[in-house]
Amino acid sequence: MEEPVNISIDLKLATPAYRQIVDAMRVRLVEEDLKPGQMLPTVRRLAMELSVHFNTVAQAYRELAEEGWIELKHGRGAMVIARRAPRPAENAENSKIFSERLRELVAQMRASGMDALHIAMELRSLAQALER
Amino acid sequence: MEEPVNISIDLKLATPAYRQIVDAMRVRLVEEDLKPGQMLPTVRRLAMELSVHFNTVAQAYRELAEEGWIELKHGRGAMVIARRAPRPAENAENSKIFSERLRELVAQMRASGMDALHIAMELRSLAQALER
Amino acid sequence: MEEPVNISIDLKLATPAYRQIVDAMRVRLVEEDLKPGQMLPTVRRLAMELSVHFNTVAQAYRELAEEGWIELKHGRGAMVIARRAPRPAENAENSKIFSERLRELVAQMRASGMDALHIAMELRSLAQALER
Amino acid sequence: MEEPVNISIDLKLATPAYRQIVDAMRVRLVEEDLKPGQMLPTVRRLAMELSVHFNTVAQAYRELAEEGWIELKHGRGAMVIARRAPRPAENAENSKIFSERLRELVAQMRASGMDALHIAMELRSLAQALER
DNA sequence: GTGGTCTAGACCACG
DNA sequence: GTGGTCTAGACCACA
């Protein structure tokens, strides 16, 4: 029942390790690679796999638990749970901020020299995945 | 000749003030709202407008200068310059990281309760702008 | 002679299962729903009813026995006994701590958005029950 | 502008230090001893005062920030902010749990030998404070 | 053996 | 000088 998480992190990046873990796992949770009911590796095991301290993984798990994706149980590991959808009330606010961040990220990609058409292709492919 | 920068930052956000400034200005530079030859407001003036310490703006300007967007002239402010495109050598590496960040950002948007179709629409609209 | 215990626990809560059992049973003991002489369900039966490991119930029973509420008889289950009142010697110290915890709990209720008057009503109703 | 926090914790207790700090400060925030706009001591200073590691205080502050009571700013300390009231939607659920915890706490007090009338008095006094 | 807490102290990011 | 992250490792609580 335990699932390999299949994520990788890069300690050289500016983004803190625990954030990278959270972000990577959130992708797998949203895309339902990790489904409710599945057990996650223990903090200590994932920590070994990623070559970080177990506290770092524990912090990531705690954050995911707070977001309502997983449940941490004393002595019994961590489990993916069915997440109640957040109310769309705050979205009016959030939506704007996220759109801005999207625009900023695209600008960053272009600034780094990526081809505009290539980026456009990626965006369309992401959009298509969402429309399924 | 001096251009209003028309950006706004939110000190309550987790993203540091100087990053917000850099990110917002990079959007305007990439999208060529700010064109080579135009003068930017002085560090102190922009700092006042945004209600931040002038060191914060100075750091943002320094970063933009490092990225090759602007030129700082001692005592005479900052000017947008024609940026030589970054060599696409780094791209193979960067491209992957950016794609991952894009995916993570979309996951975050979905996790925050935003409608998938709404996000898809945004992505397509960004793609379209890039293809022009 | 055996009494249904009529408690329920929630494994999703942060409070450990065994604590929930102890706390719930202590309420029933203090309020004398469970009276000296009555037999409690066996560790294994209560464990099944609550869907927890029997060790968890065993730990709860052990704690209640230590507090002087029940008596464990090897192989013959557990019985509610007449508890000698704890000497009020410790009270001076405990009283302060408990008052503080009461205050903290009320603060938590208010922080969670509960109506102040509603909380006050509850407190008065508890007080009234104590004065009978 | 900086305010003494005037809390004390007891490392001998089972409740973790950071929880004690959170609980004690929440009382002071709910009762508006600490008002929006006030600066809190830095994590390192409060840590010294309470004789704990600064990480312990940092964790407590982070929790209070998450609950919306305070704001942590890089390089600028922590400030009490005006907290948006939590929506009373979840209360139906919470209310029950909190009432149960109240009942359990009272049972614990009685079990520890505190005089029932004394407890009743305390409850009434808390109720009165809420009705003001 | 699980997750949780705490300490000690290094190093970084921010303003 | 502020808060944030991470490591190392001890010890505890839980199931």
Account of the 3D structure:
- 4 copies of one chain form a homotetramer.
- Chain A is mainly alpha-helical.
- Helix content of chain A is about 55%, strand content about 10%.
- Chain A has a 3-stranded antiparallel sheet, covered by helices on one side.
- In chain A, helix 1 crosses helix 3 and helix 2 (about 45-50) packs across helix 3.
- The longest helix of chain A is centred in the last third of the chain and has 21 residues, at about 90-110.
- The two termini of chain A are about 30 Å apart.
- The model of chain A has no long low-confidence stretch (mean pLDDT about 90).
- Chains B and D meet through loops of B and loops of D.
- Chain A binds a DNA duplex (15 and 15 nucleotides) through helix 1 and helix 3.
Strand order of the largest sheet of chain A: 1-3-2
Q: What is the arithmetic mean of pLDDT of chain A?
A: 91
- Number of helical regions of chain A: 5
Oligomer: homotetramer
Name the chain pair whose interface involves the most residues.
C-D, 50 and 49 residues
Structural class of the helices, strands and pairings of chain A? mainly alpha
**First-last Cα distance of chain A:** 28 Å
- Rg of chain A over CA atoms, rounded to whole Å, is 17 Å
Instruction: Give unreliable regions of chain A as ranges.
Output: none
Biggest sheet record of chain A: 3 strands, antiparallel
**Succession of helices and strands of chain A:** HEHHEEHH
